Amino acid sequence: MSSAATPSASPPRKVAVAGVALSDCGKVDDATPYALHAQAARRALADSGLDRSVIDGFASAGLGTLAPVEVAEYLGLRPTWVDSTSVGGSTWEVMAAHAAEAIAAGHARAVLLVYGSTARADIKAKRRTSNLSFGARGPLQFEVPYGHTLIAKYAMAARRHMHEYGTTIEQLAEVAVQARANAAHNPEAMFREPVTVDEVLAGPVIADPFTKLHCCIRSDGGAAVLLVAEDLLPDCAKSPVWVLGSGEHVSHTTMSEWDDFTVSPAAVSGRLAFERAGVRPDEIDLAEIYDAFTYMTLVTLEDLGFCAKGEGGAFVEKGRLTRDGELPVNTDGGGLSAQHPGMRGLFLLVEAVRQLRGEAGAGQVHKPDGRLPELAVASGTGGWFCSSGTVVLGRG
């Protein structure tokens, strides 16, 4: 037997975000979803300072019959690593986790994540209608015939939290009010005029207890994020934002299989992400949270550990979520005010990176001592709290 020592495996490569960008957002009546993908991708590549030839990994979902094959072809890319994971709004945090793992393992050097949608324009032009459900096959066949819409599922969960913990409709409205306050500083936000709690409560009821302003807006738009191996950083235009840790979790499809309406899958994905990043929730400087409805923000804050279960209502009061609050949340205005073209999770990553770089303009967050934020978390939710992906990012 040879006495030679077995060579140790190479340590995993560190992974950074090198480029982020949005396409034109809001009301975009003269572009296709493919064009928005391409616009966001070109802008993210320009932001990174890298040549497109370095891209050997590609991730996309939500467009075409063979996503991401069709989108990669449209962009002129021939990747050797691909991902088309589709788990709703959390898709992009889950894809970012997969991409970071692939880069760390040496399976890719630069992975482009890109998304684009003309959801608003398509409805306006009558190319599609609003969907009441995701389909009626499989387990969903037992719910869809009874009119159990996606919005109704979120509303039921919110009502349960209100019953269980005394959360008030005014506290839920505070989430919408503070998201709009953050949007006021974002020139890319679709709605920037301030709103009050009374105005939120006075709106038309969409699904009890949600009125219109408790629900996300519908917009057009796209986003792109470029993740790279650390050896590419000398060629990058900007300082890196590191991917420190991530987690993912799926919970249920049918409401009858959801153990507790007051606990989202972020309770698992968040714990895993923080553990793997080696940080605690109280060290985080800002949070970008999927907010298709106000209740999503509130319960995700609890499940990520920023407050105890049942205390989310009190936590969101007194401006805590605004740019100058104790925990700035959805600093661009979120899906409630900035933009929501569909699976919005990639926008969370773009905004988190911009904040850590100090590129958020009038909406820039600062630590109490005036320094730029150092740690951010992006947590996406898919379906009706069916899935969650959480990514911890750090500047340095």
UniProtKB/TrEMBL annotation:
CDD domains: SCP-x_thiolase (cd00829). Gene3D superfamilies: 3.40.47.10. Residues 247-395 form the Thiolase C-terminal domain. Pfam families: Thiolase_C_1. This is Acetyl-CoA acetyltransferase. The lineage of its organism: Bacteria, Bacillati, Actinomycetota, Actinomycetes, Kitasatosporales.
